[in-house]
Design goal:
By secondary structure, this protein is of the alpha/beta class. It contains 10 helices and 11 strands.
């Protein structure tokens, strides 16, 4: 029997460094295989560059360890040669992770009808699905979240990030006019905000982190949940 295979679709650019690199590193270290997919086969994806250098005066970016994981990820042959979204065969995978990000390039991924169709097909297999931050938007638009408990990027986090950066970066932190939380609620999901905090979980401290599990579906709010999210997704895959 081969390794557990996890599908991770991505936009061509602007995904969140931490929400991709931390699950990739932890799940790969657990012996699983992460398969990447972009709109067109062979498009080498790239993370939001501001999260690598710092959003405002070198602040608000990814933490050092996730940035190191991302540098390791760029050397993964599978990351450099992803499959096309339309070529995805959902039954070939044991799990699906929908990562987030907020910069404009994310709209390619969040708004793709082709990807939403593949995600809905995978959802019907009742295998583990994980989404974090903006990732639940893909599930909402695929029509599968109604009645399901879920986390996503809470409105207070999205609003605060926008307010502290708009003077310099405009709508960088507002992917769409509607807040993520509002779209998830409008899709009929049972949104769970989690505790009010801006503290991040780490490799050794899950105290500030928060996830929601509803059957085979796991969700989280933001990069600060990525380590706990990855560990709990591993548990879903192996139990």
């Amino acid at each position: 029997m081969g390794p557990v295979r996890i599908l991770m679709p991505l936009p061509d650019h602007d995904f969140d460094v931490t929400e991709v690199a931390v699950p990739w590193r932890l799940l790969t270290d657990a012996g699983h295989q992460v398969v990447f997919s972009t709109e067109r086969a062979g498009t080498r994806p790239a993370a939001d560059p501001r999260l690598l250098t710092g959003v405002i005066f070198g602040q608000l970016g990814a933490e050092p360890e996730p940035k190191r994981f991302y540098q390791e990820l760029t050397g993964d042959p599978g990351f450099a040669a992803p499959i096309a979204w339309e070529a995805i065969e959902p039954s070939d995978y044991d799990g699906l992770i929908l990562a987030g990000g907020h910069a404009p390039g994310m709209r390619q991924y969040l708004g793709s009808a082709a990807l939403q169709a593949k995600v809905a097909e995978f959802w019907r297999l009742e295998r583990p699905v994980g989404s974090i931050c903006h990732g639940p938007i893909v599930l909402a638009r695929a029509g599968v979240l109604a009645g399901r408990r879920t986390a996503c990027l809470p409105k207070y986090m999205e609003r605060l990030s926008y307010y502290v950066s708009a003077w310099k970066l405009g709508s960088y932190y507002r992917t769409y006019p509607a807040y993520v939380e509002d779209e998830i609620r409008q899709a009929g999901a049972k949104f769970e905000r989690g505790p009010f905090t801006l503290a991040r979980g780490t490799a050794t401290d899950d105290g500030p982190a928060f996830t929601v599990q509803d059957g085979n579906y796991l969700s989280a709010r933001w990069p600060g949940d990525a380590y706990l999210f990855a560990r709990r997704f591993d548990q879903l895959l192996t139990t």
